Predict the 3D structure of the following.
Amino acid sequence: MQLFDAFRKKQETLAPVTVTDTQIAAIADCEMMNVADVKDEMFAQQMLGQTVAFLSDADTLTVCAPANGTLSVMFPTGHAFGITMESGVALLVHIGVNTVEENGSGFTILKKKQGDSVKVGDPIVTVNLKQLRKKYDMSTMLIVTDTNGHEVKIETVSSVTRGQVIGEVL
């Protein structure tokens, strides 16, 4: 147990990332993928809003805040969370397809809770990808669910690092 606690502590103290309040960043060190390849039509066809997808082959992954703002939604299962930026733009991070069915198994919500202020790169959830990918597509989607009248530009690149700028609210 102490080994796990040491690992968690290390994950929670990741180096700070500096971006502006209008920038959107990668949620972890991983690969960006073509969202059309996600095995769920709602995500693949971007029905909830402009969507980008990430994939990691790691056994565990700490998913971090993609923008500065307020942690406006934190699902108790840990499979999804939302951030509202200062501009009113709302982002949803959804980890895996149908992972809500696990009722939180495989997800560890870290120190942040709904209503807290967050900065890009702040750790939000640690995911046991090794456990969950046995049953689920573990693509992680970043969805712009409300532009609040702004134009949001997100670029798809290949490999990204936690906190790397991938988009901007214009």
